């Protein structure tokens, strides 16, 4: 596994230390670590990547009564759009279930030029009813125990898929926003560390965890030491910022992570801008999504940070079913009926 890192430090006078092999980055006199990484820290040499979940209208993952997955024909259409129209060669999947296995099968069968950061989804093993606003009562212990069993099964599925498709799976992400306090599928960090170690012992691919930038900056030191890279989520529009502050806010958040984890290899596993959102008003638009994509991708290219834009397609199963204009449904670069938004039209993507 590639464990290349960028070390940074400064003396009081600003002289550079530990610069052997020219592998170090500078720390400026304000005590801020350089964000820029070496090109070898890119996943598969790729900067621009995309998150993918192929659920269309009327489809959804398992929400307690079984999943309604897209067909193989639909997934193949999506993958061909991602490769041939969007121009991405690296995608992120969120779990190791049936739908994800279908993606891997189709990439192999049709020899698509797409690599995958495979996800392992973790359900709640802690009840976050005191910090998650949509949990109104504690999660029963019986349910938490059942989740533990399901998580162990999901870990094994992820391990199996990574080993079955080594030519396609280039990294494995254990959990998604399962550590940040406001989410409903909370995990204890020590449990996540144990799960990551289990995966690392069983696969050849690098292993990561995807979570909110604030969590990484405040609490990520212990976990980062057992990972091959840290995966960070950034959403300025969720935090109340307009497009004029989108890029600067995003950079500030990566800077916080870099300062807290100076030795960590950083990947941005989610960054996006909703094209429509009842919660955001005029801040959400295709024009703003286009601007954020182009500005942010230009910056991460200079920093050598692999960035998964969220997301390939709108998903109308998400969020409040009574609000068709809710933000959760409208992060896609394409609409749910597979029509390109402004950023993906000719001349839209820089």
Keywords:
32% helix; eight-stranded parallel barrel; 350 residues; alpha/beta
Give the gist of this structure.
This protein is of the alpha/beta class. It has helices spanning 72-86, 98-109, 141-164, 189-202, 213-219, 221-224, 243-260, 286-303; strands at residues 7-9, 24-26, 48-51, 90-92, 115-120, 169-176, 207-212, 230-234, 266-271, 307-309.
Give your account of this protein's structure.
By secondary structure, the protein is of the alpha/beta class. It contains 8 helices and 10 strands. The chain has helices at 72-86, 98-109, 141-164, 189-202, 213-219, 221-224, 243-260, 286-303, and strands at residues 7-9, 24-26, 48-51, 90-92, 115-120, 169-176, 207-212, 230-234, 266-271, 307-309. The protein has an 8-stranded parallel barrel with strand order 3-4-5-6-7-8-9-10, surrounded by 6 helices. The radius of gyration is 20 Å and the shape is globular. It starts with 6 loop residues before the first strand and ends in a 41-residue tail after the last strand. Mean pLDDT is 88; it is low at 1-30.
Number of helices, counting only DSSP H or I runs of 4 residues or more = 8
Largest sheet: 8 strands, parallel, barrel
Lateral strand order in the biggest sheet: 3-4-5-6-7-8-9-10
Low-confidence stretches: 1-30
Helix-strand sequence: EEEHEHEHEHEHHEHEHE
Distance between the termini: 32 Å
The average pLDDT is 88
Radius of gyration: 20 Å
- Which shape, going by the Cα principal axes? globular
The proportion of residues forming helix, as a percent range, comes to: 25-40%
Count the strands? 10
Structural class: alpha/beta
Strand content: 5-15%
Assembly state of the chains shown:
single chain
């Amino acid at each position: 596994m590639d464990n290349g890192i960028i070390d940074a430090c400064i003396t009081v006078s600003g002289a550079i230390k530990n610069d052997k092999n020219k592998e170090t980055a500078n720390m400026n006199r304000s005590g801020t670590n350089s964000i820029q990484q070496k090109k070898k820290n890119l996943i598969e040499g790729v900067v621009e990547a995309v998150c993918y979940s192929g659920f269309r209208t009327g489809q959804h993952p398992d929400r307690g009564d079984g999943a309604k997955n897209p067909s193989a024909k639909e997934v193949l259409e999506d993958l061909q759009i991602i490769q041939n129209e969007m121009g991405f060669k690296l995608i992120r999947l969120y779990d190791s279930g049936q739908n994800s296995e279908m993606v891997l099968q189709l990439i192999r069968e049709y020899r698509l030029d797409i690599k995958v950061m495979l996800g392992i989804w973790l359900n709640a093993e802690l009840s976050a009813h005191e910090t998650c606003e949509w949990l109104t009562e504690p999660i029963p212990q019986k349910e938490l125990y059942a989740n533990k069993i399901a998580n162990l099964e999901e870990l094994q599925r992820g391990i199996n898929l990574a080993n079955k498709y080594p030519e396609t799976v280039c990294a494995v992400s254990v959990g998604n926003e399962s550590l940040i306090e406001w989410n409903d599928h909370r995990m204890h960090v020590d449990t996540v560390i144990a799960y990551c170690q289990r995966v690392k012992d069983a696969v050849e691919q690098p292993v990561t965890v995807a979570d909110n930038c604030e969590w990484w900056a405040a609490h990520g030191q212990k976990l980062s030491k057992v990972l091959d890279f840290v995966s960070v989520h950034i959403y300025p529009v969720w935090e109340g910022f307009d497009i004029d502050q989108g890029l600067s806010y995003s950079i500030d958040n990566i800077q916080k992570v870099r300062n807290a984890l100076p030795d960590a290899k950083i990947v941005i596993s989610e960054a996006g801008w909703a094209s429509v959102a009842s919660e955001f008003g005029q801040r959400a638009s295709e024009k703003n999504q286009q601007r954020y994509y182009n500005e942010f991708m230009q910056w991460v290219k200079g920093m050598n940070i692999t960035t998964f834009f969220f997301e390939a397609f709108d998903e109308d199963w998400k969020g409040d079913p009574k609000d068709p204009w809710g933000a959760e449904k409208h992060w896609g670069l394409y609409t749910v009926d597979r029509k390109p938004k402004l950023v993906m039209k000719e001349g839209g993507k820089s």
